[in-house]
Design a protein that fits this description.
The structure is a single chain. By secondary structure, the protein is an alpha+beta fold. Helix content is about 20%, strand content about 30%. Among the domains are: about 60 residues, no CATH class; about 60 residues, Immunoglobulin-like, CATH 2.60.40.10. The relative contact order is 0.07. The strands form four sheets. Strands 3-2-5-6 form a four-stranded antiparallel β-sheet, with no helix packed on it.
């Protein structure tokens, strides 16, 4: 320090004097860095844990393995709980109790009554039979079957009617293609309307008539066939036929025919003419045929 003749140690500032009241403490001191701090020894916390030691040996996937083990244990517990058998008595069939026979009979008899209407003997016997059958079923431990009524049977067809027909002259009678015989006839026909054909090759009769037959009734008809007059004017020498039956060679006289349907045919020199007609009773029918 000044005035002492001793040097000032390095790193310390000289004391304050009147000429330098605030000496620069570090003006003459060299700057030196602090020595580095010794490294701190870290505590091996992870190394001291058993879990971390296991993870260190097995790797980071050990946690996933633990979670899988826990999930498997939980699933096994649920399976064991659900697979337990139900307590005794829960799955047993319900017991059936047998009702007294008298109670069943009384119930069925009351059900057979409708607004106080008395059933006939046949219905009462049927109810008793049903009650006995139900009681027998109950005695056997079986539930009675519900009685079902069969659908009403179709009504029986009405009886046929009887038809008796006579005629003058006698003719053959046909129902469609069925030959019923020659008059007089007796036959049974189902109820309804029937169209019959009366025909005779000798007289040329060919007529249809309709008859109504009632069920179970008897019908009698006495037929007479009216006549008509047929006149055919044709060339001399022409052959005249009626219903395939030859009437003669023109000129011919008027012909009396019975009422009905006919086929008139005229042939001459390889030429022919024909026509169907209906001959009502009491009429004059005239045809003029020219084949030239």
């Amino acid at each position: 320090p000044p005035g002492t003749g001793r040097p000032t140690p390095r790193g310390f500032a000289p004391p304050a004097s009147r000429s330098n009241p605030t000496p620069d403490l570090l003006a003459n001191a060299p700057v030196q860095g602090l020595p580095p701090a010794p490294p701190k020894k870290s505590t091996a916390i992870r190394e001291n844990s058993q879990v971390t030691q296991f993870n260190k040996r097995m790797g980071d996937s050990s946690r996933s393995v633990i979670f899988l083990i826990l999930a498997a244990a939980l699933a096994a517990g649920v399976f064991i709980f659900m697979s337990k058998e139900p307590p005794e008595g829960l799955d047993a069939p319900p017991e059936r109790h047998t009702l007294p026979k008298e109670l069943v009979q009384a119930a069925l008899q009351n059900a057979g009554k409708d607004n106080g209407e008395v059933l006939d003997d046949g219905a009462g016997k049927a109810d008793e039979a049903a009650a006995e059958a139900a009681a027998a079923a109950l005695d056997g431990g079986l539930a009675p079957e519900v009685a079902t009524t069969d659908p009403a049977a179709p009504p029986a067809p009405p009886p046929p009617g009887h038809l008796q027909i006579s005629s003058d002259p006698e003719v053959s009678v046909f129902l469609g293609k069925e030959n019923l015989g020659r008059t007089p006839i007796n036959t049974d026909l189902p109820p309804g309307r029937h169209r019959l054909r009366f025909t005779d090759a000798k007289t040329g009769i060919n007529i249809y008539k309709t008859f109504r037959v009632r069920p179970g009734a008897k019908h009698h008809h006495d037929l007479s066939f009216g006549t008509s007059q047929l006149v055919v004017l044709a060339p001399e020498g022409a052959v005249v036929s009626l219903n395939v039956k030859k009437l003669g060679t023109a000129p011919i006289e008027p012909v009396t025919i019975y009422e009905g349907e006919y086929l008139l045919k005229v042939t001459y020199n390889g030429m022919s003419w024909s026509e169907r007609f209906d001959a009502p009773a009491g009429q004059r029918i005239e045809y003029k045929v020219n084949l030239k």
